[in-house]
Structure formats: C-alpha cells, structure tokens
Branched-chain-amino-acid aminotransferase (Lacrimispora amygdalina), 712 residues
Amino acid sequence: MQTIRIERTACPKEKPGKENPLTFGTIFTDHMFEVDYEEGKGWYDPRVVPYHKLELEPSSMVFHYGQEMFEGLKAYKTEEGKILLFRPDKNIERANRSNDRLCIPEIPEELFLEALKTVVSVDQDWIPTKPGTSLYIRPFVIATDPFLGVRPSHTYKFMIILSPVGAYYASGLDPVKIWIEDDYVRAVKGGIGEAKTGGNYVASLAAQVKAHDEGYSQVLWLDGVHRKYIEEVGAMNIFFKINGVVITPELNGSILPGVTRDSVLSLCREWGIKVEERKISVDEVVAAARSGEMEECFGTGTAAVVSPVGELRFEEERMSIGGGKIGELTQRCYDTITGIQLGRLTGPAGWSVEVK
Amino acid sequence: MQTIRIERTACPKEKPGKENPLTFGTIFTDHMFEVDYEEGKGWYDPRVVPYHKLELEPSSMVFHYGQEMFEGLKAYKTEEGKILLFRPDKNIERANRSNDRLCIPEIPEELFLEALKTVVSVDQDWIPTKPGTSLYIRPFVIATDPFLGVRPSHTYKFMIILSPVGAYYASGLDPVKIWIEDDYVRAVKGGIGEAKTGGNYVASLAAQVKAHDEGYSQVLWLDGVHRKYIEEVGAMNIFFKINGVVITPELNGSILPGVTRDSVLSLCREWGIKVEERKISVDEVVAAARSGEMEECFGTGTAAVVSPVGELRFEEERMSIGGGKIGELTQRCYDTITGIQLGRLTGPAGWSVEVK
C-alpha cells in the first residue's frame, strides 16, 4: 500500500469551547485526507494536509453531472482515552458499491481504512467527549474532469473531512414527528437510491421543506412505483415494532443499506426478538398506529444513531406512537449501540476498530 | 436591475486554431459571469470576470447533497456578423422551474438574460463560424454553504461559462445507434427527472457505459413505473415518425422539457404535419420498426440540435430505421432550426435574440 504522507498545519484553529453545545456539521478540524485519481494511473499521492479550500475548474464535472459519492461514520474517545471507529468496514464496502453504481473507480479498502485511521489520529484532540458528542467523519469523492460532455470523469478527488458534532437533532433523544410523503418520490428501483450520492439528497429537499413548514422534522418516503410501500426516512432507515415484531423495509434497490440499520437488525436477532425485513405498506403502518398495535417506531442512521418517532402524519391523519415517549426497544438499541461505540460495552467481533 | 460590472482579462488565452476541428465542451473562453446569493440579501455583485478556478470549502453542500442546476444554449454569428441567441427565454424559464424543484432561489429573468448577453458580448471573438460550430453557453448554479446537515443551502453561486464547440457527436449528422435500456432507470414521476440537475445525469452513466461497450452511442430510457413507456434519450428528447405522424412522449413529470423538442413540435405544426405528444410504449416502437411503418426516428437537444437515429436495439433485437440514412423530416428540422440559429431563415417571433 502507498504510504500516506502527513503535512501538519502551522496554524492550528481554536477548538470549540466546552461551554457551547456542539451542533452538527458546522465546525471542521485542522486537517483533511486527500488522494487523487487519474485514469491509467490510479489513486495517487495519499496525504493528510491542513484543512483547505478546494481549487476547481468551473467546468469540473461534479458541478454539472452530479458524479459524487459520500459516506458518514463516527470516531469516539473511550473513558480510557482509546479512539474507536464503529464498523468502518461497512462504510468502506458501501462506498465501493456506491462508486460502482456511479461509475467512480473503486477505492482500495486498505487505503481507505488507513486513511480513516491516519486523519483521525492526527486530529484526535478534536474528538469531543461530552455525552452525545463524537467526531463525525465524512469521506467523499468528486469528479474533476474539466469537460461538459456526459460520460464518467477520468479524474477524481477522494477526501475525508472531520467535524466534532453533537446530536443531529437539536431535540436529542426526544421523539421526532415524521411526515409520510405521498407526492414527491426520492428514488426508484433501477435508479441511484441505493447509492450514497448527492442526487438522492437534493431530490428530498422539496418534501423536507414542506414537512418542516407543517412542523415535521423528517419525511418518510413511499416507493415510486406503487406509491404504497414504506422506503426510508430522509436521513435514516425506519423500524416499526408491531405486536412484538420488529419490521423494517427490505433492501429493494431503492433504499440506502444503512450501517446502523444492519446493527439494529443484528442486535435484535441476538436478543431473540423476531425481526422481519419485508415490504410494509403505508396502510399496514396506519392500521397498526390506529389500533395501538404499533408499540414503537424509530429511525436509524449514523448521524442520529437511533431516533424515536413520536408522531406519524399521513394525509390529514396524525398518529401518536408510544404516547410520544421513547420506547423500551428504541432506548435499548440506542444505549447498546452508543455503549459499543464508546467502548463501555463489547459488541460483536469487528464492530469496534481502534485507532492507534 | 443591478448593473453587471466587467473586469477584462489582462492575459487573453490563445483561441483554438482554425485547422483543428472543434470538439464539445473542452475549451473555455477568456471570461465568465458570476453572481452570488445569500439568504436575506438575494443575488448580489453580478460580474463578468476573467475565467478562473473556484475556491470552495470541502464541506460546500454541492459536493455532498447535489444541489446544482444547469442549463445549455448556444450563440451563433451570422454571415453579417450579428450575434444571435436561440430562444434564451425558454432556458431561463426552465432554469427557474428546475431551481424551484431543487429548492434553489429563483434567478431574476432580466438579470439572467442580461448576464447571457453581456458575457457573450465580451467574448464574442470566441464564437466560431465554421459550419456546425457555435458558442455553447453553460449557465449553472451550485450550493455553497459549508455545512453537512441536509437542508437547502443558504448561499449559492450562479455562473455562466462559454465553450466554442463543434458537433456533439464526432460522427456529425450520421445516424446514431440507440440502446433501449430495460434495467437501469433514469427518473420517475415525483422525482427530479424534469429538472436539469446533476443527479439525473450521474444516474444515466452506468447504462451509458453498458451501451457504449455494445457499440451504441446513447441510451433510450423507459419509464420507472411500468418499465414500458418511452421517456427520453441520454442527452436528448426523442421523436418517431410512424405512418406520417410525428410522435414524441408527453411531458409527464419525469422527462426533461427540451427547448429543441418544443421547437420541433412548433415547426411540424406550422408545416401541417400531424404531431402527437402522448405515451408511446416500447412495444409500439418495436412493432413499427419491425413492420417498416417507422419512417424516421431522431433525438433533439441543444448540444446536437437534431440527431438522426439509424438503429434501435431492444433486448436481443436490432432494428434499422430508414435504411441507416437521415430521414427527410429529420433533415428539414435540422436545416430549419440551424438556419434560424444562424440568421439565414426567419423563425417564429422571439426565437432569435440579438446580442448587441
């Protein structure tokens, strides 16, 4: 593997004060990882360098044809001062599946993992330690050919930036209100819904703005073909607990395969809870919410980890879930996953990767 | 309206030599237009400045969440030396419809048109005059907030860059071979297919690569719901002439409303040719191609203007159209539209806008 060279900043920035609660994704650390790609040459010159602006041609393909991929994961500092990454192999694997769909060249897994470890290690003093905080890691690739024809780019930049963060939702673990959207569509089978790429997120904005205006924090998407089956929430996968069974939509080609989704499924199975990955229609969800058989509902995602849903709104109907309080299983998933992330609990083999 | 300030370059670039045939979208002129947006302040400081690299934070939202819009139109120099834009009002109107879908603030129409005229005027010596060449104009907007949460950006940059171009297809007006795709999907109703934005183009790359590998230059998309109805070609709208009737898919929410598409429809109607904007299934297309009732097939788009289709491939079947030669109507549309663009013919009122 190529050696990652390190160039340290001469002017470290001031770290966020301990008194201010951290928000999400606004503050960036002193360094970033960068590696370039050129067709025929491959990925070259991997380096950790001072955090800096990018200089790009206005004709760079990323600005015009959306050829971009991103990932999101977190680093935590344990009480003993160890630095842990949570299941980075899953993010690396998914990144390369996204790359494949987007015609972006594969990133060698070993280089990707080493890059994560190196940049986090260099900026380890930026990892916050207050409850609910962590260092959010954003790997991303952009297409850089200065060319206006439509084809895959021949050059790319893969970067990793770091941001000390607090809770994704300002409300923390308070249950959120979710709007079930039946007009706009996020993605469809055969499209790019499975890939972690900008096009899926910009597609979600108009519905999100509409939901916000109505007092809802996220949108729950229905499938684009039947406009009937539950897909995912804006930035999360979705779980329902109905009559003791945990149900989440199956990965069908238009849903993002979340790492936290996979972790919740693994834990529930380990705990002997019946889980089902299957199609679930909005009618089934509404019926279960009305009858009170829906015991819990929660979203899962790297940014929020586990986020309880206290209200679902479909058309004109508002359905309260679990009396607007966080459910027992939701809390258990949150406590267990954050416990493993913080090194207080031992998770399944390979879930915690230490940065030396 | 705000005045557009002009800062001319001190180091003009060398223009492409007359001996080399121009390609598409690789060479850029001496200047570009730029205007910034900030929430609460609106669009400010419109300017034509020397063509330059963009300096952007790596956390700029455009790199992560695909909030970007583009347009494409062309400027021509007539034999008398007049500079003409072709239907810029249609591009401006569509840009703002795209912006609306993408939660990007509206660009004042008057400013947009003035920006087009000013930057083209400043770089008018770059307009090529050989047959088949023109100055391609690329207006585009990118989201620039340095923020990793998912929401519409509060800051944007709107730019216009210019590129002297030859034919979009190296083959010129030679009929192209089109691959009808039945696996990948470009867009679906409720999504962003109607908007001119990167996400639709990156979604098209994998199928395009597959088609290229099979010797086809473009992909013809089927709808994402039924996988049955014809939508559009990679970078063009599509027309069929079957038994004397010109048919093109209706604008259904997932198809890009092309300016050339609209122009061809207007001209055909003016010429007394029966046109139908309606759903057309791949079965109907295949049956008409097999029986020989399909007289012509062509794509329309700003880059290629009109592009004859000589072969359609669906599953294992290859269907030759018009004996692989350009059809009469296809040629007439091409000659008329380029004639109007070059000022040799008088088009409908408002189609030609002069840059003084």
Q: What stands out?
A: Chain B touches chain A through 67 residues (CB under 8 Å). Residues 135 and 288 of chain B are 38 Å apart (CA to CA). The first strand of chain B starts at residue 5 and ends at 6. The domain at 176-341 of chain B is CATH 3.20.10.10 (D-amino Acid Aminotransferase; Chain A, domain 2).
